[in-house]
């Protein structure tokens, strides 16, 4: 199955008649970004955060996972050195020769179109509930009233437990039996992402000089989140952002972009565009892994911009440890030159902090550490 040409992926017509009809059908007062002709003030970002629509391209040497899995010590050392450099500088790299079936990736992208092009009332069957992080959300369904992201999302939980099919069950329970195929595809996709993330954890461990099994074992029973991102065209792309500047609070993000540019990473104080590569996954370090590395590897500060012509889509897998795992760095990463920076914690505590107390940004981990210390005291 082939991925549709992005130039064909236009949002629904921005007409007042269509907008009013859909609202009448759905009996709902929220509205979607793709239906707005004049951008409301809630979507306009402050001057210092407004997007640069012609940023420099970020030159990132792709990490060949096949080489890492070879028996060539010199080649493996070279790959680890590249990862170490990238993660110390900005926490971001690309992975190629990853072994994930390209047909599965294409199917996952196709179903993003199928879901988000449905009527609003159909999508709202999966409506995210207040206080929850999974489900369907558009820009006016959430905790914030300003600097709103220009996007729609669908998030769902994945657990690395062979005895259950968490993702497939979610779609059937929430959307109905007709969505079992949806669930089956994303179940398989999440399983592929989980397996890929364990390989990447081996790579990160060796890059830090830690036994390659240390981080892999920590995440073998991961309890993670999958998110489908849908960024409609925006009449004023110079005023809005698809996603504001932030570091992911999770451990690792594995992202596959369609062929529409939009992802940007901050490097040396300048926003750089990450050019989509169909055969590559974008990997970025999150706050939880930054804590696991005792601050040696940096959580990646990134954002997403929008355009005024076509839809942009991405598939994001957020790797998280299971609820009972303690986030603590290995002893090899703590010494007089690099003393302990962050307190021990469990992922649910950081997740609660970012859901209820703090809007994730580049200072999340420091703010969380202070909050955790005050709460414990």
Description:
The chain has 377 residues and is an alpha+beta fold. It has eleven helices and 14 strands. A hairpin with a 2-residue loop joins strand 8 (263-267) and strand 9 (270-273). The longest helix is centred in the middle third of the chain and has 28 residues, at 180-207. Residues 1-31 have low confidence and may be disordered.
Ordered list of secondary-structure elements with their pairings:
Elements (H helix, E strand, L loop, with lengths): L15 H11 L36 E2 H4 L4 H17 L2 E5 L5 H15 L3 H4 L11 E4 L13 E8 L6 H10 L4 H28 L5 H7 L3 E9 L11 E4 L5 E6 L5 E5 L2 E4 L7 E5 L1 H6 L9 E3 L7 E8 L6 E2 L17 E2 H11 L6 H13 L1
Parallel strand pairs: 1-2
Antiparallel strand pairs: 2-10, 3-4, 4-5, 5-12, 6-11, 7-10, 7-12, 8-9, 8-11, 13-14
Helix pairs in contact: 3-7, 4-7, 6-7, 7-8, 10-11
Keywords:
single chain, about 375 residues, alpha+beta, four-stranded antiparallel sheet, globular, disordered N terminus
């Amino acid at each position: 199955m082939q991925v549709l040409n992005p130039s064909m992926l236009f949002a629904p017509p921005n007409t007042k008649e269509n907008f009013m009809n859909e609202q009448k059908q759905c009996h709902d007062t929220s509205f979607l970004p793709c239906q707005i002709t004049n951008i409301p003030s809630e979507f306009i970002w402050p001057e210092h955060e407004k997007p640069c629509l012609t940023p420099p391209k970020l030159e990132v040497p792709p990490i060949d996972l096949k080489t890492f899995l070879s028996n060539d010590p010199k080649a493996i050392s070279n790959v680890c050195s590249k990862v170490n450099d990238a993660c110390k500088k900005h926490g971001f790299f690309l992975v190629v020769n990853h072994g994930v079936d390209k047909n599965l990736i294409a199917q996952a992208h196709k179903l993003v179109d199928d879901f988000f092009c449905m009527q609003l009332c159909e999508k709202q069957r999966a409506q995210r509930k207040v206080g929850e992080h999974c489900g369907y959300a558009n820009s006016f369904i959430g905790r914030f009233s300003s600097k709103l992201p220009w996007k729609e999302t669908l998030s769902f939980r994945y657990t690395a437990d062979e005895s259950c099919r968490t993702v497939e069950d979610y779609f059937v329970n929430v959307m109905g039996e007709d969505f079992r195929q949806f669930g089956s595809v994303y179940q398989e996709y999440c399983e592929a992402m989980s397996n890929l993330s364990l390989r990447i954890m081996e790579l990160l461990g060796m890059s830090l000089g830690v036994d390659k099994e240390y981080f892999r074992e920590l995440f073998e029973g991961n309890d993670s989140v999958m998110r489908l991102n849908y960024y409609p065209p925006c009449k004023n792309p110079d005023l809005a952002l698809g996603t504001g500047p932030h570091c992911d609070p999770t451990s690792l993000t594995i992202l596959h972009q369609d062929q529409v540019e939009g992802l940007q990473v901050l490097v040396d104080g300048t926003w750089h565009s990450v050019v989509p590569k169909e055969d590559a996954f974008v990997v970025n370090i999150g706050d939880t892994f930054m804590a696991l590395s005792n601050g040696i590897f940096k959580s990646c500060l990134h954002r997403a911009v929008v355009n005024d012509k076509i839809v942009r889509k991405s598939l994001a897998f957020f790797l998280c440890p299971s609820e009972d795992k303690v986030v603590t760095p290995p002893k090899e990463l703590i010494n007089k030159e690099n003393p302990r920076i962050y307190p021990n914690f469990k992922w649910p505590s950081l997740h609660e902090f970012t859901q209820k107390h703090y809007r994730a940004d580049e200072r999340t981990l420091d703010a969380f550490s202070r909050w955790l210390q005050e709460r414990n005291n």
